[in-house]
Design brief:
Chain lengths: 190, 190
């Protein structure tokens, strides 16, 4: 595992372990997206972490080794794609707190991007997991954006997610079945 | 400049030079996307190149230096985003040939992804530039997919692009104004 400067962890060597509980939210979402892809439902991907490359070694044309590089701040959210003609865009965050999500975990540029996505007619949302409570919430971005505009608090209470989010039940085959929430949304919008 | 194993070049240190001719197609498209963003028209971004990180040095929490990493093959196309509620997805290629685009420059996984995008109701296309002819074409992905399925040729002739593509005129302010083509498409689809 490699620790990102923001405290997130990524697997250095990717090992896909299907059906294993206790994975990170990112792993669970990637797993879910692979499931959607396999069953021909949606094409939604995690964007790679942007990296500024400053030194590369060339052994041959096909084997370049990066020997110096730095993490960059992404300008958008982590995930996007297409489902039923809809542009899908979201960010995922997990917290070890049982009581609240610290607001600064959600970056202003991510909120600005999600606001734009909504204005252009896309589906913008966030997936928030309270690890110790074993709860994963789907929250439409508009709700979080409005809440953060109105509040002076430095965190969003767990209770807020209970009232404003939609609990995504854990499923062995589809770990974070967020398209179910979108299906419901499409149904209600009709 | 850093040479990618596939022969593409990326700037190691990003220097934004607005309005300068002779930039790479990638630079011109990034410039165009920034223009669209600034004028609140669309949110379309280039995905970062996926990199497999194997070693990182930590000086402090905020300064991590990657000391060993390798380029990975992207699983999708380079660009995606949203415009007028539409999911937009495309790949860009430039060639030094005056007569044809070598087919293997378009990877099978990119074609498979674009085919999926179309099936799900998105707008999938390619932007092809013939550098020495100073011509940039917009081609709907469906046309390229069909052509490559039917042909045994190892390249797509320049004349094919003349007949099946839409020439995107170079514009000082908007270098590769591909949304103009999509606007026309929306108009005709109505």
């Amino acid at each position: 595992m490699i620790n990102y400067p923001n405290g997130k962890q990524v697997k250095a060597e990717k090992v896909i372990e299907y059906g294993k509980r206790g994975m990170s939210l990112e792993d669970d979402i990637n797993d879910t997206n692979r499931y959607y892809l396999e069953f021909d439902r949606a094409a939604i991907y995690k964007k790679p972490t942007p990296i500024r490359i400053t030194k590369v070694e060339y052994k041959s044309r096909s084997t370049a080794k990066i020997t110096e590089a730095f993490f960059q701040t992404p300008s958008t959210t982590d995930y996007n794609g297409i489902y039923k003609s809809l542009y899908i865009d979201f960010e995922a965050k997990e917290t070890q707190s049982k009581t609240a999500l610290v607001s600064k975990m959600i970056h202003p540029h991510q909120l600005a991007h999600l606001e734009r996505v909504i204005r252009y007619g896309g589906i913008g949302f966030m997936i928030i997991r309270f690890n110790l409570l074993d709860e994963t919430y789907f929250v439409f971005a508009s709700k979080i954006i409005n809440y953060l505009k109105e509040t002076t608090r430095k965190s969003i209470p767990h209770q807020w997610f209970v009232e404003n989010g939609i609990l995504i039940p854990y499923n062995y085959a589809v770990k974070v079945d967020y398209l179910k929430v979108i299906d419901q949304y499409i149904l209600e919008a009709k």
